[in-house]
What does this fold into?
Amino acid sequence: MVREEGLGLETAIGREVRSEVVPQKAESVCEQIRKKIIRGEYPPGSPLSEIPLSRKYGVTRARIRQALQKLEEESLVERFPYRGAFVKSITPKELQEIFEMREALESMAARLAARRRDEERLKALQLLFERYRKSSASSYLQEKIGIGERLHQFIVESSKNGKIIEAMQRLRFPIMRIWEVGFRIPDRIQNAFREHLAILRAIAEGKEALAERMMREHITNAFKDYIQVTMLQEAGRANSPKRKGRPRRR
It folds into this structure.
């Protein structure tokens, strides 16, 4: 029996494999597909066909359809009439807009978090940061991404501004896709750790203007690093020689 767990979408499409997994609810399937999109296991532009996915996850096509609809609402999937669903690509324009929104919303969230802090949240913040500090020496990328995401979420929630929280929630999963690439940039994890430390100290000390400025600089630095690595990747692909055949021996 072929074990389907962990196989890519191409394998599921390319083979007629009988699924023997226990049927799962749409939300559970949605979470699994979401993780694969965020981690790049389903790359941008990959087809997400209902029949192969229903076989892979052992659920009905209706449940797959529900999951894809939710992922479309989260800006991770796009669907086209008569063509089906595909993993959504993030265009350069969308990338810039996401960072611009983050700069505006999270900077204000940091300011408000410093203004509206309380003892209970400060204790939770200290515990969260201690966990983040210990993970900085870990080599497990997913743990770093997860804790970094929780740190930002903590700051947004500490703003106690419902509109900021609501707007950031809509951007949550596209941001996580960007982090998946960003944390692979050399020195980005170490730089992010230092920047997070400065932000959290400013919040803990109630320094509103400093917290806002540190968050703005943190997001700007992340954007610059991401653009730099993207440009290097594009240049590498453009300059790679196209081999049309084996060179002749002289």
